[in-house]
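Subgroup meeting minutes
Present: P.N., E.W., G.H.
Scribe: E.W.

1. P.N. recapped why we're keeping a running log of single-chain structure predictions: easier to compare across weeks, and new members can see raw inputs and outputs side by side.
2. G.H. added today's entry (364 aa).
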Amino acid sequence: MKQIDRESMGAAVKLGFFFAFTGLSTLVLALTLSNGSFGDRNQYRAIFSDVTGMAKGDDVRIAGVAVGSVSKIEIVDRDRARVTFGVDSDVPLTANTNATIKFRNLVGQRYIALTQGADGAKTVLKPDSTIPESRTKEALDLNVLLNGFKPVFQALSPDDTNKLAFEIVQTLQGEGGNVENLLARTSSLTSTLAGRDQLIGDVITNLSTVLDTVGSRDQELTDTIDTLQQFVTGLKDDRNAILDSVDSISDLTDETSDLLVQGRPALTEDIKQLNGLTKNLSSDRNLSTISNAIQILPIKTSKLGVLASSGSEFNFYLCELKGSLTIPPITLGPTTIVPETKLDLTGPGVKVGGQRCDQPGYDR
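Output recorded in log:
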């Protein structure tokens, strides 16, 4: 009998341990699923214009880490929602904290994401404070968005549809305001296009006329394209000659540049002397002389023509050469072959006319 009582006592103790362990595990699981915590939490409130899908117990996260949960949702001012949520007391919030409702999964669960504003406030947000609507954003309404994708979803497999929907959620979560602005601008664009229906119709009609004209000239267009192709083919075949010509032009340019560089001093000097000549010719005295010579020249030319046409009286001979002549040196590289030579022809001069100059009167 005592042995049976001992065995019963052992079984009862084991059963008690089992119930205690099971109860503790159930409590931990319940706290985990409900996002519960054994620590203290500070309560805050946030005003949203739309909290569709939000429920009590949803997570509150900072940088993806759960730091609290939603404890209460209520209506304020008839068309606004006030969400009360708790945050672990060891996680301080700043006065410029923003609250955004985001999708947690495709089932439709939401969570509140807390972020610090761009103005960088360092003041700690006191417990029981309220985040104004200007610092909150609601989640994107996927029902409106996904209804527009019904034709696409009908052509996709269930796996592809789920994947596409998940990617859309990941991309657009927290961007409800931007999507709303995009839809508003799209609506404005479609309204504008609808108001230009007649203009668009005229453009399409004119384009149809242009295409008909081009279609009627199909043979000419084909010939033009063939000719252009032959031209391009010819350029391709002659590319070596064209490249050689370009190289030759480059060489010619270099030679011309060198020639100009070498001749520039002489050309500069010629221009300088020409400038001096024009200055001398442009003086009043020289201009008068040139003008008189030009006026007399026709008369002198006429008289010389009459004189030359009457016989051989118009003959000139060189009888005597007087003066001095300097022959410059002739050099070949650094070697002088013939030095500079001076010829003195002064005095009696040099008789070069021969017998014709011995006739009487020629010396005068």
